[in-house]
Amino acid sequence: MKYGLYLFFLVLVYSCNSSNLSLVQRSIGVGGGSSADAPTVSSISPTSYGVKGGVLATITGTNFLAGATVTIGGTECTSPTVVDSTSITCTIPYHFASVVDVVVLNTSGITGTLFNGFSYNSYLYASNQSGASALSRMRIDSLTGNITQLGTTAVPNGTYGVDVDSTNTWVYSAGVSADQIAGFTINHATGDLTAVPGSPYAAGNGVDAVAVSKDSKCLIASNFLAVAGVAVTSYIINQSTGALTKVSDYAGGTQAGFIAIDPFNRFVFVTNYGSDNISAYTLNTTNCTLGIIGTYASGDGPDAISVHPTGKFLYAGNASNAFVGGKGAVTAMSIDQSTGALTLIDTYLTADARNGSGVEIDKTGSQVYVTARGNDAAGMGRAYGYNINTTNGVLTEIGNWVTGDGPNDVRILGDGKFVFTANTAANSVSVFVRDLATGLLTPASPASYVIGNGPGIIGITF
Predict the structure, then answer these.
(1) Model pTM score
(2) Which of 64, 145, 276, 420 has a CA that sits 20 to 30 A from residue 338's CA?
């Protein structure tokens, strides 16, 4: 009896609502309003741009209501203007490199989505150490990892260290032979570089590496051939133009190399290739001054260096074959959160890393990747991957992969899907697809791009 009454009830409900099936079938968005209010999004122009955003875009579709808003990759477009029911303009916001959805939200609370409608592309700048000094400019397709070569930009002689500021506005490079730092403004439509006012700037003896603070206010440079007291130099960055003004020089170790600034702008760490240690400094981003904390042993020939996203750990690549079995290594250290002092966690052997060892941590802090040059012997270059224990900083190797000959640096694209190495001996850049769950790498297709002139260090918009 109950079963019969239940069937009767269902038939009654269906007959009463058969004229309103469209409301059930409507699958876009949430909220009130009628199906006539549901927007559709058919296109966006431009379809891609650099990660900085800031360019005016036009979104086309149907049923756009006055007051509608737009999000791209989950971030609201600024200054949305509903031109008419089929067109909206707005200014594209920042987003790390990836392919994202474009969503229009009507005032009725109903949305329309263009899935994977917009690509935030990244630009890669590689220093060329041999021949005519230059930065090679490349655009990275954020969907495939494919590289399009855009040309070169002249820089001071002996260019090596490269860094892009956190706002993706400027890129700086260090000219070791010229004792100069060059600064450029990035064109996010084309990847082109325009010298900032006053560039290049006088720097320390053998200026080797540059690093920009996370708030883009300060630039720190290391001087590989420094005389006493000028191992490290700090500069203020003009927030309007990107121009540099020198603040002061600071003492450090022998053959000061790569620089890492912690995510909270509290500390600066500099590897000292010649004295086998790392110098630690406090950073004041109000006036870009440094204060020495101490110097800490870190293994033989420390080269590249990276700080964990939590600011708790530091990893340095050891570019020497002085370890057991003629191998290089990566050294893990913990950072005292109050003082910035370093404590050794452990050292992990890699293949021969002579002449350079790049280090890069993914944005989630899950894995770190290290290059091993294999003394530049053909077929010996590799990238090593490690899982990071985020509680104690301990590393566990997950694999290693063949790169081009003489890999000197490694970088990860913003969303973590692609890994790039600069291969000095092979005059190339290698591209790997990264499994976001495991951190394992697979060669992309194509797997490498010849760029010439001994690429050393990579700067990448993110």
Answers:
(1) 0.89
(2) 276
